[in-house]
Write a structure and sequence with these properties.
Length: 324
Amino acid sequence: MSASRAAAWFEANTHEWSEWTLAQLMEAKAGHSVSLVVPARNEAGTVGDVVGRVRETLVDTVALIDEIVVIDSDSTDATAAVAADAGAVVHRSRDIRPDLGSVPGKGEAMWKSLFVTQGDLIVFMDADLTDWDTHFVPGLLGPLLTRPEVALVKGYYERPGQSGPLDGGRVTELVARPTIALEHPELAGLIQPLAGEWAARRSLLEQLHMPTGYAVEIASLIDTADLLGVEAIAQVGLGVRAHSHQPLLDLGAMATQLLAAVGRRRGTPPAAPDAAPDHQPDRQLDQELDGQVVLRQYRPREGRIEPAERVVLLGERPPARSVM
Ligand SMILES: O=c1ccn([C@@H]2O[C@H](COP(=O)(O)OP(=O)(O)O)[C@@H](O)[C@H]2O)c(=O)[nH]1
Ligand SMILES: O=C(O)[C@@H](COP(=O)(O)O)O[C@H]1O[C@H](CO)[C@@H](O)[C@H](O)[C@H]1O
């Protein structure tokens, strides 16, 4: 895609959440049902606020959302209880379709959500939000409810306290955007390609291969553009968003997952692991689910340099529709 085509996509497909009133969206919602899905691992501190405020505003006061579903992704804290108290339906990721096995990861939780939700429109929101607003949900639904040709809507936002308000996070700026520039320029108009707040039609989501980890967002964009064309993607400005931050070395794992998913889509599967895997899925679904790599990082210890190896899971789930 040339720079001018990317600019044309941006012009035609960039929205602001305030373009639609709730009343307009409620009218446009006729015939649709909406599921809000919140993948959560150890988010007891924030998930109650996310679920509770959305429930009050968009379920109790105005029925824009038909169900709020938290997918508890192997939490060891009180995430499930807090989310249920706040009014969500809670499923443990590993308990959904146990015949399909279970692996850790955000993408896994999102993929599993497709088996326990009813909505033909699905909105994803992260559970670790610290500065956010309930208008995120109607904002993300705006293009889906008013533009039949749009199948996936990505949020974008300002990040308070960062070097520039529209800068992405560390993996966004150092991995996702450069990779998009090199290999997927058709996606260069997306301001926050990794945003955890996005929405899509179930009919699309059920057709997508989903990486089980953090590559689920970039993979969904690439595959949607491939399947339906980039014109099926829109983005919506949501205002200010802040979340809790992972340590840099943990983001190394996220970056590895992103690069692997992009490489796989180019036809370059991850190299075979060079160390014994320390994780095995409960049940091997197919070869893709087993991909992994050892990421070697380094830390000082008692005056010496100590390598720290972590196994990064690179597996992908097949289109949900193929196993329904
Ligand atoms: O194995 C995982 C890892 C993350 N998450 C959820 O995915 C969202 C974004 O992940 P995280 O907060 O780790 O990423 P960050 O925003 O810190 O980069 C949050 O709701 C997490 O609880 C999940 O459900 N399972
Ligand atoms: O953009 C990124 O590099 C990462 C990490 O962001 P920070 O550097 O911690 O602000 O955040 C992305 O991934 C998160 C997990 O899926 C999402 O919650 C963020 O919206 C997304 O920007």
